[in-house]
Design a protein that fits this description.
It comes from Mycolicibacterium mucogenicum (Mycobacterium mucogenicum). GO terms for molecular function: oxidoreductase activity. This is DsbA family protein. Keywords: Disulfide bond, Membrane, Oxidoreductase, Redox-active center, Signal, Transmembrane, Transmembrane helix. The chain is α+β, with helices and mostly antiparallel strands. It has 2 domains: 25 residues; 184 residues, 3-Layer(aba) Sandwich (Glutaredoxin), CATH 3.40.30. Helix content is 50%, strand content 8%. It has 8 helices and 5 strands. The chain has a 5-stranded mixed beta sheet, sandwiched between helices. β4 and β5 form a beta hairpin. It is globular and about 95 Å long. The termini are far apart.
């Protein structure tokens, strides 16, 4: 027959283990609660204040592709990706867009190619308040909400491109109006407005030319290889360069470049 002392010992052992298990549950429960609280606070912060700032050392493209873009065999990777590095205040970029923009848009829409738009600020010279930086950063904000709206915003910025040496430039209110006309909401509590107000992409745009190793704009790459195109040249030259990379791509036709308006008669 067991002694009272042995019973006492067993009971003590049992109680100790139970207490350990209880402490484990308390610790685990407390950690879980902390994780949940942190997640709730983070979500609340993002909802109230918008996205956190983008990595200032990141090279981030706005990737545009149709759902039926031609891909490499057995992959989801587009067969041809045209990368455009541009500054919205760069006058040569404006000429390039006027010459090749309609052809690029057509090639995107018919699924022939994908395009990576890399918006940089070279003319802004590191000034976060410069037009180049503000317009470029806002383009990323618009693209976050709607890629089709980004395409319209991109077109609007070039159609309304100020002179590089202008005495003044469109403010953010004017640029937000372009964004609104392009199809995104721009009220004070809307994501694009918060993105702009918080300068989410300002540092990234300011640093991206350096981080990407880009010396000037426009810089054009096809499948990662830099190529040259005469800014006011023939859009068919772009078609020929794409054919050299992927000769079997269908629907490769150019849109004729707009002709300059005739000079007024004296």
């Amino acid at each position: 027959m067991p002694s009272k002392s042995s019973k006492s010992s067993k009971n003590a052992s049992y109680d100790l283990k139970a207490a350990d298990r209880k402490r484990d549950w308390v610790v685990k429960g407390g950690l879980t609660a902390l994780v949940i609280i942190f997640a709730v606070v983070l979500v609340a912060y993002i909802v109230m204040n918008g996205k956190p700032k983008a990595d200032a050392d990141k090279v981030q493209a706005i990737h545009i592709a149709a759902s039926n873009v031609v891909t490499k065999p057995d992959t989801k990777e587009p067969k041809v990706t045209l990368a455009v590095y541009e500054d919205f205040l760069c006058p040569v970029c404006g000429v390039f867009e006027k010459t090749y923009g309609p052809t690029i848009a057509k090639l995107i829409d018919n699924g022939a190619i994908a395009v990576d738009y890399n918006i940089v600020s070279i003319i802004g010279r590191g000034d976060p308040k410069s037009y180049s930086t503000r317009a470029g950063a806002m383009a990323y904000c618009v693209a976050d909400e709607n890629k089709d709206a980004f395409r319209r915003f991109h077109e609007a910025l070039y159609k309304n491109q100020p002179e590089e040496t202008a005495a003044s430039f469109p403010d953010n209110a004017k640029l937000l109006e372009y964004a609104r006309q392009s199809g995104v909401a721009v009220g004070p509590n809307d994501p694009v407005s918060k993105c702009v107000a918080n300068g989410v992409y300002v540092d990234m745009v300011n640093n991206m030319a350096r981080n990407a190793g880009i010396q000037g704009t426009p810089t054009i790459k096809i499948n990662g290889t830099e190529t040259s195109l005469v800014p006011n040249g023939d859009p068919n030259s772009l078609i020929e360069k794409i054919k050299a990379v992927a000769p079997d791509l269908p629907n490769l036709t150019a849109v004729p470049a707009p002709q300059p308006a005739p000079a007024p008669h004296p």
